[in-house]
Design goal:
This protein is α/β, with parallel strands linked by helices and 277 residues long. It has two domains: 151 residues, HAD superfamily/HAD-like (Rossmann fold); 102 residues, Hypothetical Protein, Haloacid Dehalogenase-like Hydrolase, Chain: A, domain 2 (2-Layer Sandwich), CATH 3.30.1240.10. The protein is 34% helix and 20% strand. It has an eight-stranded mixed beta sheet with strand order 5-4-3-2-1-12-13-14. It has a six-stranded mixed beta sheet with strand order 8-7-6-9-11-10. Helix 2 packs parallel to helix 10 and helix 4 packs across helix 6. The radius of gyration is 18 Å and the shape is globular.
Length: 277
């Protein structure tokens, strides 16, 4: 199995999948590998990518909250965040970071209160405002993530503050968004969901090659038999993951796949060079 993050990893900075990377993925599938997208993004982003590229298969979305069948556009399984937990964590975090704003990701929409002023132009049709923070907790939609955003603090600082304020009640991480913290149900990680997916397919961790660039990818990169950090990865990821590939702008995922299929490299090689440390 080849498991890859999307933004900053499989996709270029403009959000597109390059022809070279698409060819490499097709070649890997032709050689018998299963391709699984493992992303913080919701299914609607995966749908757009599939429409543009023809990719099918399985995606782990929402940092592990959802398993999604791309071809049928069906959520196969989900691990949602209880609304009462989301509200309790938001209250605790707001006490530590008073200016923080909150939103709820449901997989279909982002519900946001007035203090949450982060807007994604590519997701504008899915963003739905509510009049106040109190109204945010009235939804009956399943919640895949609580999003916390600070205009003043970067994501790493906000993550540290949340760990102090929220404790072990939820899973905290970030995927590089400016001042954006992603909060899931306890124990929900990319690696946890991918490992369950692999167990159902009879695939061992040693048979998984993973790619990522941000702190939310660390669980997968450390769990997989071989985890590759992109050259453009977050400093914490580059420090924690011993094997690197070239950047997403240089088709780093394709670079590794091509070498593996050509027999000029092996998973986990630490040989100096484009894919070595």
């Amino acid at each position: 199995m080849i498991a890859s993050d999307l933004d900053g990893t499989l996709l270029r900075n403009d959000g597109t999948l390059s022809p070279r990377t698409l060819r490499a993925l097709r070649a890997a599938e032709g050689a018998g590998a299963e391709i699984v997208i493992v992303t913080a993004r919701p299914p609607r982003f995966v749908d757009r990518l599939a429409e543009a590229t023809g990719l099918v298969g399985t995606a782990v979305c929402g940092n592990g909250a959802l398993v999604y069948d791309i071809a049928t556009r069906t959520v196969v399984s989900s691990r949602t965040l209880p609304l009462t937990t989301a509200r309790r964590v938001a209250t605790a975090l707001a006490a530590v970071v008073p200016e923080v704003g909150f939103a709820l990701e449901t997989g279909n929409q982002v519900l946001y209160e007035p203090a949450y002023r982060l807007r994604l132009c590519e997701d504008i049709d899915a963003e739905l405002p509510v009049p106040s923070l109190a109204d945010l907790w009235l939804t009956d939609a399943p919640v895949t993530k609580l999003l916390a955003w600070s205009e003043r603090l970067d994501a790493d600082t906000l993550l540290a503050a949340a760990r102090h304020g929220a404790g072990d009640e939820v899973q905290l991480t970030h995927s590089g968004g400016r001042g954006l913290l992603e909060i899931s149900a306890p124990g929900v990680t990319k690696a946890g969901t991918l490992s369950m997916l692999c167990a159902g397919r009879g695939i061992a961790a040693a048979e998984v090659i993973a790619f990522g660039d941000m702190p939310n990818d660390l669980t997968v990169l450390s769990w997989a038999g071989t985890g590759y950090a992109m050259a453009n990865a977050h400093p914490a990821v580059l420090a924690a993951v011993p094997v690197h590939t070239v950047s997403n702008e240089e088709d780093g995922v394709a670079h590794v796949i091509e070498r593996l299929l050509a027999g000029t490299d092996r998973p986990g090689s630490d040989r100096p060079g484009a894919d070595g440390v």
